[in-house]
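R.M. (postdoc): so does anyone remember the format we settled on? I'll just put the structure tokens first.
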């Protein structure tokens, strides 16, 4: 069997992948032309660059591709119609980034309630600025996206005393993490009393532009918005307006409509907005963990058994349970 690795030039770029040579021939496609050259006869594709969009143009060369493993939680870069309609199985890196993203969200929330930005500014000015701050415990968070990442965020926040609720595709009760889950159609009801709104939804036609002017208008003026899901779920101009007008207290974005954010973007100067460069799920050993996950699935594939983390290509994500 033949494995083509897109977005990497050599085995050293993918730590630990050398173990795959026990099962398959490994070739590398660092650019679109080489991907097209290597796809004929390839059985497996490892998408090492999860932002890469080279596959669609080269898809006609995929004459026997049985399985694609995408090294990211979001798979919208490869959900083009031809792949969706094919028999090729798509899996992703679900589970790898959950804890890191939950800690990142918690870090922002703690920094806000403890007014860390003012503390650092005061230190730079050598000012002894004593003041009262708030507690995170007792506040309410609503998490849009109830997959593995949303659940880990919910569990971490619950552990520090935050009341959490979720928003998913359908309304239901008795959830072990969220208790009650609202339907996406009930979003306005869900956010009415929330102090924190956290977006971690996959990108689908239903979630694109879901966080818009109407949404922000219905948030509490003391509430803060966080998005670590997909950038295209936020109408960025509407968020900027809400922050400029003081309709909401603050926001943090880790994902954007266009990345990297250009130097001329007004996002940089939007009041009470924290920007981070799509790094909430990244940590020092993440690449090693992603390869371990892939190798475990590769053993399963070679054995002819059911793969883990299979993406429903129509929905665009791995279904829970």
């Amino acid at each position: 069997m033949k494995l083509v690795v897109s977005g990497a030039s050599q085995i050293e770029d993918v730590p630990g992948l050398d173990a795959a040579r026990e099962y398959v021939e490994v070739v590398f496609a660092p650019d679109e032309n080489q991907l097209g050259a290597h796809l004929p006869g390839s059985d497996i594709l490892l998408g090492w660059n999860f932002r890469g969009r080279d596959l669609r143009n080269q898809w006609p060369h995929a004459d026997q591709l049985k399985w694609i493993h995408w090294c990211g939680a979001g798979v919208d870069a490869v959900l083009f119609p031809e792949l969706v309609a094919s028999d090729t199985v798509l899996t992703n890196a679900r589970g790898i980034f959950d804890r890191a993203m939950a800690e990142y969200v918690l870090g922002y929330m703690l920094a806000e309630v403890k007014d860390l930005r003012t503390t650092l500014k005061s230190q730079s000015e050598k000012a002894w600025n004593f003041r009262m701050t708030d507690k995170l415990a007792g506040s309410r968070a609503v998490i849009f996206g109830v997959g593995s990442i949303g659940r880990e965020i919910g569990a971490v926040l619950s552990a520090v005393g935050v009341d959490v609720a979720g928003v998913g595709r359908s309304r239901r009760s008795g959830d072990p993490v969220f208790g009650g889950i609202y339907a996406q159609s009930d979003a306005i009801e869900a956010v009415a009393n929330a102090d924190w709104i956290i977006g971690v939804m996959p990108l689908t036609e239903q979630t694109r532009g879901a966080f818009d002017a109407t949404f922000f208008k219905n948030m509490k003026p003391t509430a803060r918005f966080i998005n670590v899901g997909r950038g295209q779920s936020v109408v960025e101009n509407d968020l900027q307006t809400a922050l400029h007008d003081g309709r909401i207290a603050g926001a943090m974005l880790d994902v954007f409509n266009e990345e990297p954010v250009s130097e001329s973007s007004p996002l940089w100067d939007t009041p009470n907005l924290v920007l981070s460069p799509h790094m909430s799920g990244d940590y020092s050993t993440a690449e090693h963990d992603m390869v371990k996950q892939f190798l475990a699935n590769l053993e399963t594939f070679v054995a002819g058994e059911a793969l883990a983390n299979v993406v429903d290509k129509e929905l665009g994500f791995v279904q829970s349970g």
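R.M.: ...and that's the designed sequence above, right after the tokens. Also worth knowing: The mean pLDDT is 96. The first helix runs from residue 32 to 38.
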